[in-house]
Amino acid sequence: MKKNLLLILLLVGFVSCSTYSYQSMANIDNNIKKINIGMTQEDVISILGNFYEIIDSKKESVILGYKSYDNGIYKLTFQNGELTEWHKEWFTRETSSYQPNATSSTSQPINATVTQDIFDNLQYTDSEGKTVTIKKDIFENTQIEDNRGNKISIKKDIFGDTQIEDNKGNRSSMRKDIFGNLSYINNGEEISIKRDIFGDLSFSGGGKNAKLKKDIFDTRTYSDSKGNKIEFNKEVWENFMKSNDNNDQIFFISLIKKYLYS
User: Of 6, 8, 32, 82, whose CB neighbour count within 10 A is largest?
Assistant: First the structure.
């Protein structure tokens, strides 16, 4: 069940952003050369893109992570919205963890390429033999398929609801009501993200729940059923909103993936 809920959350981010992270990952090694210490968080995100992970978040600091195709990740530290340091780490299969500045022969970087055809279809291929294709038809339906037999289809029905189905019999649907609340039905189980009259967001599904609230000082607080609690002051929150197209639901989903399902 946990894997299914995570899949839905990942697909929500995929559908909401209307783009895919492959291209950003392919360009990260070139774009990182444009980054300088002292840049604002907004300027850095405008260069590197919105496909980052929140590695750590405190009251006046945040660490963002950008994955690259050589099996590494760039970690950028911001203090009060300003870049103070960054470095790259590599993943080693033997330790199953990220190792800062790893140069050992045990590290096995993956070489990968991403190509795009004239119809904007994407194909990812790496040195381990994995291939993933992402295609859209004339009705804007999306098909994701890899060379290991996995297939996922994402399409809109006549009511405007998003239907997600894989070739293993799993089915999910996503819909938005007139108040902008999102609901997901995953193999009969409902998962929902709702906004109350105060503008606060709440998530429930699979026996888990999370909330994102704003107080009178414009401080946002994320909390969940695992006991996580993170505060964002007004300045940090505004920076995150600028990098997420001012969509707090997308940012809320990224927090749920990071903290509730990690």
Answer: 8
What's the pLDDT tens digit per position in 245-257? 677 887 888 888 8
Residue positions counted in the chain: 262
In which residue are the tokens 């990182």 written?
A: 32
The three-point CA angle 57-237-262 to 5° equals: 40
Conformational region of residue 129, where left means phi above 0, alpha means psi within -120 to 50, and beta covers everything else: left
CA 13 – CA 125 distance, rounded (Å)? 22
- Give backbone dihedrals phi and psi of 82, rounded to 5 degrees, phi first: -120, 135
- Hey, which residues does 83 pair with through a beta bridge? 78
Q: Name residue 219's amino acid.
A: T
- Extract the tokens encoding 85: 């340091």
How far is Cα 150 from Cα 168, in angstroms, rounded to an integer? 8
